[in-house]
């Protein structure tokens, strides 16, 4: 028999699969059902999950917590990692985790499921159902209701991988990454209704080295919001809509504030979103900054404001002494951004009169409005344009 390249790679694949099998086989597995979790969607399984976590956490070897198929009712739970004895925990989820149908049960706890001070965690698969609809109705009716809980939050944690997860109908944000280093989020689906308040897809703050890949997000607020102190963030192959787009901000509320730097947003699609690529700062004094941002290869399908810098944010003209943002925006590139806008002003750079934007680059931006010429508006924005820009650059 002739040994072809194909045979060799097939053999290689088999060898790799064998070792992969061996290595995953050596992981000690903690099945949540062995700790009393019930896949009936009715029995409270919170304690069982926490006990499985405590057992896994006490192991000095790599561990796996396994959640078999079925629906597991969970109230608010905090998974603490500071005393864990290993740095390699996997939570493999084949089932659905369901929040209590009465939103008051978790609505004042801030987070539904929270991981804090965890190092080396992989969450693979799983559907998280926040059951937020009743709370959204309460909020939009103007009654007094709880703030709501974030579905899945990671605080002060390092080396996190989240993959293949589905998050549905969160009460508040779907996911929060705050104070973390090295987090990779990929192949996720995040969804809530277009008119659900504050249901941001992923909120990142005070974190460095976060990567978000191949994720589909549709919510009632920002698909991804990027808060203070975020650096080295990479977003690629994300589709957004409905929602408010991908937003850096709001920044600049406080005088002393950590800046945002080195953000790449690459190969994204926006469908029917309120904004596309946005940077938003309060019109208040601040020492904050945004620098080193690359927005590259975006397709806009009927986005209201595809490209927006809004440094004049001051709802109801309240709380904005001085009325000019202190946040310094520099070195922001928009490259190969094309498609359709639903407002005539498809590109708006409204920078701070106290701190004009510097180093803005527009390259091959092609946006149309109802098959007509769109408009570009710039104020206090300095930079350069390259290639063909439609509407014509206002820099
Ligand atoms: C910017 O962030 C990327 C990851 O998103 C990282 O690979 C790169 O090294 C960072 N650049 C600098 C100058 O820190
Ligand atoms: C993103 O999508 C493009 C086009 O489908 C693909 O070529 C690229 O490898 C993807 N990148 C990642 C990081 O998945
Ligand atoms: C801009 O986009 C329109 C509509 O998609 C297209 O017809 C046109 O050729 C594009 N122009 C350039 C310069 O790429």
TrEMBL record:
Entries under Pfam families matching the protein: Glyco_hydro_28
Subcellular location: Secreted, Cell wall
UniProt xrefs under PANTHER family: PTHR31375
Domain of life per record: Eukaryota
Provenance organism: Solanum verrucosum
Residues at the catalytic site: 244
An example molecular function term from Gene Ontology annotations: polygalacturonase activity
Descriptive protein name: Polygalacturonase
Principal localisation: secreted
GO terms under biological process: carbohydrate metabolic process; cell wall organization
Lineage: Eukaryota, Viridiplantae, Streptophyta, Embryophyta, Tracheophyta
Record keywords: Cell wall, Cell wall biogenesis/degradation, Glycosidase, Hydrolase, Secreted, Signal
SUPFAM superfamilies in the record: Pectin lyase-like
Family: Belongs to the glycosyl hydrolase 28 family.
Leader sequence residues: 1-25
InterPro entries found in the cross-reference section: Glyco_hydro_28 (IPR000743), PbH1 (IPR006626), Pectin_lyas_fold (IPR012334), Pectin_lyase_fold/virulence (IPR011050)
């Amino acid at each position: 028999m002739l040994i072809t390249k194909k045979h060799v790679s097939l053999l290689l694949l088999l060898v790799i699969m064998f070792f992969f099998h061996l290595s995953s086989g050596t992981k000690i597995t903690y099945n949540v059902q062995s700790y009393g979790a019930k896949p009936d969607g009715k029995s409270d399984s919170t304690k069982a999950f926490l006990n499985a976590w405590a057992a896994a956490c006490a192991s000095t070897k790599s561990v796996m917590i396994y959640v078999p198929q079925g629906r597991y009712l969970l109230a608010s739970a905090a998974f603490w990692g500071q005393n864990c004895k290993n740095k390699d925990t996997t939570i493999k989820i084949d089932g659905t985790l369901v929040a209590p149908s009465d939103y008051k049960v978790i609505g004042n706890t801030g987070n539904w499921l929270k991981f804090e001070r965890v190092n080396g965690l992989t969450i693979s698969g799983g559907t998280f159902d926040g059951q937020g609809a009743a709370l959204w109705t309460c909020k939009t009716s103007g009654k007094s209701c709880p703030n709501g809980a974030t579905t899945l939050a990671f605080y002060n944690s390092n080396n996190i991988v989240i993959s293949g997860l589905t998050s549905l109908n969160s009460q508040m944000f779907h996911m929060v990454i705050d104070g973390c280093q090295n987090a990779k989020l990929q192949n996720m689906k995040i969804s809530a209704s277009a008119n659900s308040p504050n249901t941001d897809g992923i909120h990142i703050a005070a974190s460095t080295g976060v990567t978000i890949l191949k994720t589909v997000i549709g919510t009632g607020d920002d698909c991804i919001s990027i808060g203070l102190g975020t650096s080295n963030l990479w977003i690629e192959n994300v589709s957004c809509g409905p929602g408010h787009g991908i937003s850096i901000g709001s920044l600049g509320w406080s005088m002393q504030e950590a800046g945002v730097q080195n953000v790449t947003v690459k190969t994204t699609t926006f469908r029917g979103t309120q904004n596309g690529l946005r940077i938003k700062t309060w019109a208040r004094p601040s020492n904050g900054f945004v620098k080193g941002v690359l927005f590259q290869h975006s397709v806009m399908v009927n986005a209201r404001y595809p490209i927006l810098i809004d440094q004049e944010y001051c709802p109801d003209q309240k709380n904005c002494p001085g009325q000019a943002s202190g946040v310094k925006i520099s070195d922001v590139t928009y490259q190969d951004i094309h498609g359709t806008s639903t407002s005539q002003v498809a590109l708006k750079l409204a920078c701070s009169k106290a701190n004009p934007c510097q180093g803005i680059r527009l390259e091959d931006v092609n946006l149309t409005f109802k098959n007509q010429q769109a408009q570009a508006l710039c104020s206090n924005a300095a930079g350069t344009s390259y290639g063909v820009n439609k509407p014509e650059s206002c820099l």
